[in-house]
Write a structure and sequence with these properties.
106 residues, single chain, mainly alpha, rod-shaped
Length: 106
């Protein structure tokens, strides 16, 4: 097969068409090399999803904290919280802290 016969094949004619070459170059440039490439967009979308999940987590934590603050308006709940979290006590009162062993026995 000579070069002339090779160039006359329909597939080679389509591939060597100047418009096809320009379009292929443009697509490769836009997917890989451009500042706003598809790869950059994919990374940004992953980061957006991560930030949205963090946002939802913090919203739920804020709701929990708001509920805790509303409960602490009651004097008994405030005292219970102080005893449990900060190990506070009244005068003339003894506190015994019980810790459980978390290591497995062999």
């Amino acid at each position: 097969m000579t070069l002339k016969q090779f160039r006359n094949k329909p597939v080679v004619k389509i591939i060597t068409n100047k418009y096809v070459l320009i379009l292929a170059t443009f697509i490769v440039w836009m997917v890989f090399f451009d500042e706003n490439s598809w790869l950059n967009h994919r990374e940004f979308n992953k980061e957006i999803e991560k930030l949205n999940s963090e946002k939802e987590y913090y919203k739920s934590e804020i709701k929990k904290d708001d509920a805790l603050i509303k409960n602490l308006d009651d004097k008994e709940e405030l005292e219970k919280f102080a005893r449990e979290e900060y190990k506070m006590k009244k005068e003339n009162e003894d506190i015994y802290i019980i810790q459980y062993d978390t290591l497995e026995k062999k």
